[in-house]
Structure formats: C-alpha cells, structure tokens
Amino acid sequence: MERFLAQLCGTSALQPLPVWEGDTTGHCFTQLVLSALPHALLAVLSACHWGNPRNPGYIPRCSPGWRVRLASSFLLSIFPLLDLFPVVLPPRAGPGPIGLEVLAGGVAAVAWISHSLALWVLAHSPHGRSRGPLALTLTAFLPAPALVLTLLWHCQRGTLLPPLLPGPLSRLCLLILQLAALLAYGLGWAVPGRPQEPWAQEPLLYEGQEPEVAEDGESWLSRFSYAWLAPLLARGARGELQQPQDTCRLPDRLHPTYLARVFQAQWQEGTRMWRALYGALGQRYLALGLLKLVGTMLGFSGPLLLSLLVGFLEEGQEPLSNGLLYALGLAGGAVLGAVLQNQYGYEVRKVTLQARGAVLNILYRKALQLGPRRPPTGEILNLLGTDSERLLNFAGSFHEAWGLPLQLVITLYLLHQQVDVAFVGGLILALLLVPINKVIATRIMASNQEMLQHKDARVKLVTELLSGIRVIKFFGWEQALRARVEACRARELGRLWVIKYLDAACVYLWAALPVVISIVIFITYVLMGHQLTATKVFTALALVHMLILPLNNFPWVINGLLEAKVSLDRIQRFLDLPNHNPQACYSPDPPTEPSTALELHEALFSWDPVGTSQDTFISHLEVKKGMLVGIVGKVGCGKSSLLAAIAGELHRLRGRVAVWGLSRGFGLATQEPWIQFATIRDNILFGKMFDAQLYKEVLEACALNDDLSILPAGDQTEVGEKGVTLSGGQRARIALARAVYQEKELYLLDDPLAAVDADVANHLLHRCILGVLSHTTRLLCTHRTEYLERADVVLLMEAGRLIQAGPPSEILPLVQAAPKTWAEDGQESDPVTAQSVQNPEKTKEGLEVEESTSGRLLQEESKKEGAVAFHVYRAYWRAVGWGLALAILFSLLLMQATRNSADWWLAHWIAQLKAAKNSSQEAPAPTSLGSAGPLSAQLLLFFPGSLYTSVFPLPKAAPNGSSDIRFYLTVYATIAGVNSLCTLLRAVLFAAGTLRAAATLHRRLLSRVLMAPVTFFDSTPTGRVLNRFSSDVACADDSLPFILNILLANAAGLLGLLAVLGSGLPWLLLLLPPLSLIHYRMQRHYRASSRELRRLGSLTLSPLYTHLADTLAGLPVLRATGTTYRFEEENQRLLELNQRCQFAASATMQWLDIRLQLMGAAVVSAIAGIALVQHQQGLANPGLVGLSLSYALSLTGLLSGLVSSFTQTEAMMVSVERLEEYSCDLPQEPQGQRPQVACALTPAWVLEP
C-alpha cells in the first residue's frame, strides 16, 4: 500500500502521505483525505435518497431555495470535469500528479451528480415542504476545507502574480467558482424563500393529514438509520403522542388485514398452529438466521483484530499499512456488526409482531365459532394475553438456541488459540456454577410460592379491612387490625428475605465470574511456563467477556422455548375445539307452506354435540307468520333452550328446522341482557344507520324516553361494562330496543318482562310486542301468564319436551296462576326507573342525586405525566436509609475500582515485561522527544505514560524472574480477591437495603390509609386502594430492586470504563463532552417518546381484552343478528392500533440502539487511530492500548443497558410515586378525640394475627 500511495502522490515510500508540506497541508493529503473521502461519503448518502418518496401522490411546488440548491449542485458537478482539462492538456498545470488530480476530480463530479439527483427527488417529495434531511446538507459542506486549503496553496505559490500562466490561472478561477457555488448552495438552504408551511427538518403532521407510513418507500439508509422515525420522535418530544392515531401507520406487511389473508391461506381446520405460522412467516424468519450468523461472526472480529493491532504495536515489525488495515477493519467490523445485529433484532421483532397479529386474529375468529359449551371467558383471555406473548418468545429464542452454543464453541476455540489449554480451568469453574445456580433457582422458586401465599393472605385481609372500614373506625380497631396486617407482612417479608439473599448470592457468582475466570486462566498460563503478552492478555479478556453471555443466557433461552411449547399446546387445544356453525342447524329448504315462518319436525337438540346433557325435543311445531307465540312452563323446563335451539345456539342431533328468511337473521333479546360498553344510542343502533323516525318509535315502545330525559347526556350517556351503570330494568329495555331497531321478521324474546314492574311490563306488551312488532313473528318466553292472554298460540314445556300447544284459553289454565301485581310476585321494582309511568319526578330526583354523587364524590384517579419527580427518588433513598444507601454506593464503586485495577495491573505487568525485554537486548535509539521540549504538543498528545509514570513508581520486571512472576501474580490475585469480597458486600448490602425499603414503604402506606377519614373511603373505590397494596407494593418488593440493581451495575461499569480510557489515552477524553451531549440528547429524545408509546401500548391492549369479553358475552346476539363480521372488523381495527404502538415502541428502541452502537464504534475507531499515531511517534504502550480497546468493545452494551435500565427503573418508580402519594397526601383523622370505648369492645378475632 505504501508503494501504491507513493506512486499515486509522487512521494517517497517512507512517507507516502505527508500531512504537512512546508507551511500548509500536503496536497495529496488534501486531495485524498479532505476531498475524495468526503465526496465519496456525499455520493453514498445522496444515493440513499434516490428511493421513492413516502407519499408518492403528494408533489409540492419547488421553493426558490430548492431551485438554488439544485442549480448549485449541478454546477458543482460540471466544474471538477472542466478542471481536468488544464491538468490533462499540455502544459500540465499541477500541483499534483495527473492520476491524483483525475481521481479527485472524478470522485467530486460523481458525488455532485448523485447529490443533484437526490435533491431533485427530495424537492418533489414531502421533504419539499422543509429544508430536507440536515445530515445530507452538512455532508455537502464537508469538501469545503479542501477547497479553502487549495485556494491558500494558490495564494502561497503566487498564481496571480506575473508571469500569469493560463493553466494555473484557469484552475484558480474554477476553484473560486466552486466556492461561490457552494456558498450559493448554503444560502439556498439558509434562506429557502416563502414556504407554504413553517420550515422544519421533517414534514410535520398537518391538520387532517394521516401520519406517515412507517418505512414503506424509504431508502435503505433511512431504514438502517431509522430516519423515517424523525416525525414520530418529534411529536413525542413536543408531547403530542396523546392517542394511538398519533403514531405512524403500520407497513403493509404488518397490517392485520394482510396478515389475516396470508395466515388464512395456510390455515385449515385441523392444521397445527406451528405449521400454519411456518407456512406464512417461516421462510422469512429462517432467512434471518443468516443475518444472525453473519452478525455473530462479525462479533468476533473485534477480539481478533484487537489481537492483530496490539501485536502490531507490540512487535513494531510490520509496515504501517498493516496497522492501518487493522484499525480500519476494527472500525468497519464494529460498524457493520452494529448494523447487522440491529437489523436482526428489528426484523425479528417485525416477524414477532406479524405472528402476534396472525395469532390474535385467529384466536378471535375461533372465539366467534365456539359452540354452546365453550371455555370460561377468563381462560380465553389468558390465551389472548399471557399464552400468545409466551408463544411469541419463541421468535427471539430459536435463533439464540443455536447461536449461543455456536458463540460458546468459537469463543473457546479462540481462547485455546491464545492461552492453549489454560482456558480449561476457567471453563470448568464457569460450568460448576450452572448446577449451583440451578439449586439457587429452585430454592428461589419454592420461597416465591410461599411468599405469594402470604401475599394473598395479606391482600385478602386488607380487602376485608377496607370493606368493613366504617365498623372498624366506629369501634377503634385500627391498631389491632394493623397489627394483624403487619404480622402477615412480616411472614411475607421473611420469605422475601430468603429470596433476596439467594438472589444476592446468584448476582455475586455471576458478577465475580469474569474476574475469577481471568485469574484462573492467566495464573494457569504463567505456571505452565508461558510468558504473558499484551496480545494474549487483552484478547483473552475480550473473549472471556464474550464467554459469559452464552453461559448466562442459555438457560433462559431454553426456558423461553419450553414456555413457548406449553403455550402453543394450550392455544392448539383451544383451536382444536369443534366449530359451531349455526347455519348447519337449519334445513336449506324453507318451510313447506309460504305462510309459515318457523317449522320444527322431530327435532332433537343438545348443549353438546354427543347429546350427553339434557336435550330438547320438539316433535312438531309450526308457527305462522305474524303470530305471537307464548312459551310457558316451570323453571328449568327448557323454555330458554327452545329459543336457543331456534337461534342455532344448540347442536341439532336430528330432525328438521326450517325458517323463512333465514338470511335476514333474528331479533333476539336474551334472558340476561347483553349491553356493550358504549353509549345508549350505539347500543340501540348496533351498527345500523340512524333513522330518526324509527329511533323515536323504538324509544317510545320500550319506555325509554323518561329514562333518557334524566340521564346526564341523554342517549349519548356511556354505560359501563355489561351495563353496570344501569338498573336491571333499563338493561332489559335497551336490549329489547336494540332487537326492535334491527327490524327483523322473527323475534325471539326470552322473558324481557321479568326485570320490570307490572306497569312497565304492561307498557312493553301493548306498545312494543303487540304494537311496533305486531306485524312480525314473535316467540315470547315468560313466567307472567297474564301477559299471554292475547297470544295466538301458547306452548307448554316440561323437561325439555313440548307437551302441548294450543290457544291461551286451553293452555294457561294448566299453568299455576301467576299473581297480578308485581309486589305480590315477590319481585322488586326497577330501582332506578321506579317507575317512569307512575312517578317520574321521584326517578329524576334519585338520578340527579346519583349524578351529583358521581360528579363530586367519586373522583378520577390522579395520574402524573412526564418524568418521575426527584422527590420520589429521594423518598426511596430515605426508605433504604442514608447510611445503608451510602454503604451500597461505596461498595459498588469499590467493586468496580478493584475490577478495573486488576485489569490495569495486567497492563502494567505486560509493560514492565516488555521494558525489561528491550533493556536486556540493546539500548533503544534516542527519539526526538527531548528536542520537543517538556511542553511539546506531541508529547502531551501522544504519550500518556508521562502523565503518571513519575507519580506511581512501580517495580520493574525481569523477563524470566520467578520472584517477579510470583510478586505480580500475588498482587493480581490479591486485587481479584478484594474485588470478590467487594462484590459480595455490595450484593448483601443491596439486598438488605431493598428489604428495608420494602418494609418501610408498606408500613407508611398502611398507617396512613388506616388513619384516613371515612370520607376518603366513600369517594375512593376499594380497587384503587387495593392496587397500591397489591401491584404497587409487589413492584417495590421485587421488580424495582431487580432493575435498579442492573442500573447501578451499568452506571458503575460505565464510570470504570471512562476511568480506564482516560488513564490509558487521556486525549480520548476530548471526545467525552460531545459524546456525552449527544448521548444525553438521544436518550432524552428517546425516553420522551418511549414513555408515551409504552403508555399507549397498555392503553390499546385493554380494549382488545374488553372487546373479546364483550364478544363472548354477546355471541348469541351477534350470530342471531348476523353482525359477527362487523365485530371481526372492529377487532382488526383495535389490533391495528395496538400493533401500531407496539411497532413504534420497538422501532424507537432500535433507533436508540443503532446510535449507541455507532457511538461505541466511534470510540473504538478513535482509540485505534490514536494508537497508530502513537506508534508512528514511537510512544505507543501496547498494554494501555489493548486495555482501552478491550474496554471500548463493551461500551455499546453498557450505553444501551444504561438507557434501557434507566427507562425501566423510571417506569418502576411510578409504583413508589403512587405509594408516596398515599403515604404523604392522604387526609388524616384528628387524633385523640374519639371516645375510648373501643378497647373494651375489641373481640378476640380482631386481635388474632
């Protein structure tokens, strides 16, 4: 390479690329490094924007700024070509060789042509509303220094002085024109003209405009860098991510409609779930294994190239070009590995979301096809939530199941190459920890089961306490019951104590493992008679860190695969349940007589397909059109079963069922009214178009006008889940109104008069059943036989058999006479509507009181927004205790310091070995350091050893002295032993501190709640208080300490890494302020959006559960009215909103990850570059360089882990915030003013723990 550069630049092979020539930079350096490289980068970045615009149908007009930039870019592509004529044509107008000038000019011309095309594409895309991508504009100005330096060269050479030569003069003129065009380009960007909208770096979301589609139509650079997320992140930073619609739309391949179509093409009845998923997504998922393989292989490029680079610095025998290639390979491998690993994680997450959409869609579709004997709703909801998520863990675990063993094998092989068989001792030590961890994990699981039992007992006791709080306060039993709760809490904390200290032992073993393995390997290697070198030591250190990951993660990967298998079996059992098709219950032919609406002949029905349950048999039944058919009989005689059989909800075992106009469906009012969580109007319309006249008639017929007039928002009043905010009578009448509004030909009414009093029942009978529905066929089940006197036919049921049918005069006398008044019947009148016909004023008054109570007494639960306040962290610090908290931090810092000291001692040992080896051979030639002076810039920049060598005088080592080896091994082992003790101390202190905090937070919460006045309990739902005592306390007990431990470890690791880098390469710290600023802004930008996206993800998940529960509860109504398709579309809409939030959250995580990875690659590149410059100056310390590089390779993981753990800690601290809200802000009863009669009345059961 040296000869090639020398030939290209016309220089000597000893210094092929001189940086300085006289008073200015070398021309070859200017043309290659300052001109050709920036132009090549500009060409690549510009080519990335040749892709289609995000919204192809939208083409704005070009502003003056865009036109100026386009013209300037075009001119800048012409000028370098014109500049080649004076160079090529004789006499040649230097200053460099012709090959160098042609190369630089050609690259510049290609770059600006590429940039012109990119500008044209961007100007005719939505970017035309803005200045376009800022990174692309900044890259366009990178060649400017080369132009300025070339202009200075012409000034120094006197190009404008006589005699004037045409060649140099024309080149100078073209150079000035290039600078002018570049200046015009900058003005076009800075002063864009009159835009139609405010200028920004990205198009904003305008009013009425849909959010952008994620990644579709984006260039490959935008996909790799996630630049398409800029509008979403900007909205998050401005606090505009308030609803799911604010997130970007899903790509086509993630849309639920597309996924349903692809999955249904592979799905058939009886198909195994995994086969269908493989057919739909398997090939793409398996192809990601290749990406995983390449990324894993690139992960080893770091240690291998580190070995070569340190060997290059240590031996000093290889040419500089080799070192340059090693450094470039290290940087390129880090960047390429970061991109591939990031894309692998992103693509796996996309496949996971695709599988999730397909699974949730097929689960919902299966729920619509369930028969009358279906699993409980809670079990199906568990399939939708827990099992589907556990099944999808397979996507992340499968490739890891083969990737981690492969990584382990390759790491062991490379360790063997470095330290021979000395690695076996460390491997045996690591493998011994696996069964130890298994025993610890088993004990933890057993203790966790016992702790959960004590937790259940405590929460149950708190529930009883809150339910009877008035009695407890009346008798003054607060202290006695507090003692009982504290006793339960003490037993719970006893089990938690065991769990935390076992967990501390586990943390200690894994935290101390890297240091212990390193000690065993290096001591074994030295005792085998080998000599340590920087190459072997720091390559082995990097490989040991890579060895820990597979050993630590593999058990969790296997556990994830086993959990996925269990969940897959549960989902498969659900999908294998027999489908129920109501249409199969009916004969394809209509009734024999055109006047017949319903005909049953020798029909036998059962609730299960084999007929083991009580069956319903109808020998013959024929119902004419327009008839009112009453169905009577004793309780449990099969009246509701008959209606369910006609509606197709029972299995028809034999016989014939024929219905006229079957495709129109039925009007069904079930015995248990089904009400959706929606407005009253939406419940009645049920998806049908609003008809004002019909709607008015239905409200009048169902006696709802008076109820609506007293409700807060009339028919726009939202009712709670299952209609909990309505009375029984209101629910029944709304369900009846829904059936009436559908305008069906056949109505199945299952006792709609049971929940209302006699006057309202009489109104419903005459105005609705005999009024609005008089032209339809009606089957009415009721116990109130007096309402069937005007029926056309009455059916008498007994034990599931139709025993007699006839006119009311014949059948009704056979039934025991029912009382004529509601009160005598033993039924309660409608508690809210009591009743609108008799006493509407009283009803209105009661509802006004309820509304007032709802508005003033029942307050909405407060919710904090934004980041967790500092006082919450301070409260947790106080709960741990000042002394204990400081001891934890001190032990943590001491642990990290001793770990870094052990590695630094290795670097010092190796440096002394090399110094002793050099001194034993020959005296080194004097360097130019002395002439540089004590304050030489070269000395300060490239010789960090001089900054502390005189401060820390350490003994020199002989190359083969056994006493020196024993000394260095003893010190190394001592430091490692101290590190192990500090690690153990930190684990134990942290467990003690978190246990103390858990006890303190619960004790303060319980005391404050028990001392709250009764008015607080009147205005606060019990579930809200219980949520603090259950989930929030559980989070403070377990989840928060777990993630906080990871956060502290990552923070200490980052501090130690910076300390090592600063001591080894002090000038590398110049990168720290800009990188810290970039990191702070990135994580702040990320957290602002990530926090809201997690909230929206949880917010959009609840409607999915609610919709499924609603569907299962109202399945008979959906099938009878033929609206299952509409509910399936609604499920896809809800799923699409949730998928949008989930996808956006994972994409923002990858957005942060790639930037942190590139930051780590930048640090590695900087270290390699400084090491090469040090080597050229003869000042490189291979030990310090190797130590710095081995630490820098883990920088990315530390930065990513720090942001991730801090984000999760912030989320967990919300529980502490909620506990502190009750512990500090609840009103308290005045103490010492209550009568002291409570103690004498306290029974024994209250005092028993």
From TrEMBL:
Topology of this chain in the membrane: Multi-pass membrane protein
Superkingdom to which the source organism belongs: Eukaryota
UniProt family annotation: Belongs to the ABC transporter superfamily. ABCC family. Conjugate transporter (TC 3.A.1.208) subfamily.
EC numbers: 7.6.2.2
Primary localization class, coarse: membrane
Residue stretches making up the ABC transmembrane type-1 domain: 286-563, 886-1211
GO CC entries: basolateral plasma membrane
MF GO annotations: ABC-type xenobiotic transporter activity; ATP binding; ATP hydrolysis activity
Keyword annotations from UniProtKB, A to Z: ATP-binding, Cell membrane, Lipid transport, Membrane, Nucleotide-binding, Repeat, Translocase, Transmembrane, Transmembrane helix, Transport
Disordered: annotated span: 823-858
Coiled coil: none
Any one Gene Ontology BP term: lipid transport
Subcellular location: Basolateral cell membrane
TM spans (from-to): 70-90, 102-122, 134-154, 169-191, 285-311, 323-340, 391-415, 421-441, 505-528, 540-562, 879-897, 935-955, 967-992, 1046-1072, 1156-1173, 1179-1203
Domain ABC transporter: 598-824
InterPro entries recorded: AAA+_ATPase (IPR003593), ABC1_TM_dom (IPR011527), ABC1_TM_sf (IPR036640), ABC_transporter-like_ATP-bd (IPR003439), ABC_transporter-like_CS (IPR017871), ABC_transporter_C-like (IPR050173), P-loop_NTPase (IPR027417)
Broad enzyme group: translocase
Compositional bias per record (Polar residues), positions renumbered to this chain: 830-840
Catalytic activity: ATP + H2O + xenobioticSide 1 = ADP + phosphate + xenobioticSide 2
PROSITE patterns linked to this entry: ABC_TM1F, ABC_TRANSPORTER_1, ABC_TRANSPORTER_2
Entry-linked CDD domains: ABC_6TM_MRP7_D1_like, ABC_6TM_MRP7_D2_like, ABCC_MRP_domain1
Naturally occurring in which organism (per UniProt): Delphinapterus leucas
Protein name: ABC-type xenobiotic transporter
